[in-house]
Amino acid sequence: MKMSEANEKNKLTASMGETVSEQDEKKEFVPENPDELYGKLIKLVRENMTENDVSLVEKAYFIAKKAHEGQFRFSGEPYIIHPVSVAIILYNLGMDGESMAAALLHDVVEDTDMTKENIQEEFGEDVANLVEGVTKLGKVPIFTKEEQQAENVRKMLMAMSQDIRVIIIKLADRIHNMRTLSFMRPDKRREKAQETLEIYAPIAHRLGIRGVKEELEDLAISYLDPIAYKEIRDRLEQQQSKRKEYLDSIQKKISERIKLVVPNASISGRIKSVHGIYRKMYMQGKSFDEIYDIYAVRIIVDDVIDCYNCLGIIHDMFKSIPGRFKDYISTPKANMYQSLHTTVIGDEGIPFEVQIRTWEMHYTAEYGIAAHWKYKLGVTGSSKFEERLAWIRQLLENQKDSDDVEDIVKTIKTDFVPDDVFVFTPKGDVINIPYGSTVIDFAYAIHTQVGHKMIGAKVDGRIVPIDYKVKTGQIVEILRSSDPEKGPSRDWLNIVTTTSARAKIRSWFKKEKRSENIEQGKIEFEKELRKNNIRLFDEELEEFVKKLCDRKKIESPDEFFAAIGYGSISLDKLQPFMKDEYNRILKASEKPKDEIIVTKPAHRTSSEGIIVEGIDNCLVKLSKCCNPLPGDEIIGFITRGHGVSVHKRDCTNVPINIKASAEPERWIKVYWDESVKEEFNATMDLYCLSHVGLMAEIANSLASMHVDIRSINTRTLKDRDTIITLTIAVNGVEHLNSVIKNLRKIDGIISIERTGV
Q1: CA distance to 489, 705, 710, per residue, from 684 (Å)
Q2: Using an 8 Å Cβ cutoff, are 470 and 437 in contact?
Q3: Domains, the chain, ordered by start
Q4: Among all residues, which ones are annotated catalytic?
Q5: What residues form DSSP beta bridges with 295?
Q6: pLDDT at position 300, please?
Q7: 420, 433, 422, 438: which is closest to 472 by C-alpha?
Q8: pTM for the complete prediction?
Q9: Confidence tier at 500 by pLDDT (50, 70, 90)
Q10: How far is CA 467 from CA 48, 414, 475, 697, in A?
Q11: Is the distance from CB of 682 to CB of 737 less than 8 angstroms?
């Protein structure tokens, strides 16, 4: 580039912190002239880029203009306005000529008669691959809109793993679409804004492109919650002059002290983005005045040692707020962000944040991975560059063991949160994991085998529950089993929050427990059928399962059930397809639905609190095999001489296909009487890491909840593992769940499962 380093520093300093939150409210729309807009682009390219880049951009523009001729955007503008605007955004991010050429051509394959082969012939393989990577999937056999979205994201990430420029072009594309979102239908605006906030802004964050992330977040919030957005904007605008005056005085005061020690330091002020304030006000429940980092001063120096010297000066000048210092230089964030952060109190009693970093750290913080092109920091062989790409490859690798395409979107939504936690091992190693991670996630972040062998955890020397969420600064020790056969629990799949840990657990079950997976999968599948009231004859069920296998591209029913067993297939996601397929089978069959039809039911309440449909004055007993409780879905069985036996609908003794059973007429509808006041026995197994006083803690906890213990039994296993079978008195499922929730808080209890007797 022709721009000098000094000029670039000045430019960066002047534009620091500028996001959509500091832009004017939407102005009256003035259509752009395509030729004038292109004139701005080519002028910039000619002044600052190579002749080859100029040639690529010129050629791409004229081909794209011809291809999009006669096409218009929702705003009424010629369509070519969009790709030219995207190319300008990429120029400002410092991207190369191939990226801008791909941006100009990125919609021609999707919206015109041009093909990838045509582009490759004219521009070469790299540009053609970039265009293909940015292009959405065509019409593919995908059932839901969510699956379509997930497949598009996966395709983009796969292309991105080959060439990171794909995602930078996509982010620029999304920025311009969001800037012009007001011309779309209200439902489409919300849909695009939600997708931007949940997928594209987190990806920009993970790539470290701060300006892009903040603009996408602010634009998204302006459509998702316009009232809150306006409230924050109004508060910021009301204080604009005061804000500027305050920041100027702070900057001047700091500059006078800092430059005595570090003459080359650059000092500037910035305001937190609207979305940053929104997150703390509406998601963390803070008031505007409780947000300490609305105001920020940024100090940029040449060397790391100067960063710490400046920190000392700041803490000498102002009173620091305890717990508000973060050293991201020694412990960088997952996106390679480095800086010192401290919050101090100014002379007027107003808190403000101070960020201190070197110029190289600043380039990385502002432009993230794009800095490698903008500042020629080096791409080939760069360890930092490779680290930035590692998460993409890991994400795609984790997804291999899952047939749920939406896993990839879930990962972006959960694992790419702005806030990470920094947790220490007993040896002092720092593990960086997403906010909200459990001790299980921490174990798998250390090493896969550490996770597999985990039997418990200590946090700061104290044993914690298996679902304990770690916090920054804590020392976590993972307790491991010496048993070579020890592996993870299936319950962990419902506890872990990171996709990486979930993928490793699934992989273990997939490899080690095939027969168990098949059995577990069949059990879960049968439960799902019952839940959705799906009842089929054997031959219909075979056809039904075959259709599901075809849907998931699985060769055999056993493979299908195994995939359910180790958590690769989510039955919740298959539910719409299952219902549609069931309705199709029913429609094609002349057989009546599996329902017991009663013309006019007579209801009575038994001594067990049960309403029997169609039968009066009969004996009713709760089955001991499943111990149903008020709140459970139940069904009755007319016994010979012993009245009606009541079972949970998902009891193993209840056939899935009642119509196909030996005596379907003996199964009858029963209901819980809403007015029942009785207590019922509930039995559960507590899997524990035994220690002195555990039984006393359990008893005390139940006593504090006024829960009566009916029976208790213990079995000791290897490695101090204990199973406690506990029967208690409860008034229903909700009461039982509340008891279980409180018991899980006791140190040493790993998991709790409800059982029969």
Answers
A1: 17, 17, 12
A2: yes
A3: 5-225 (1.10.3210.10), 236-374 (3.30.460.10), 419-511 (3.10.20.30), 513-588 (no CATH), 610-672 (no CATH), 680-755 (3.30.70.260)
A4: 110-111
A5: 271
A6: 93
A7: 422
A8: 0.55
A9: confident
A10: 54, 16, 16, 19
A11: no
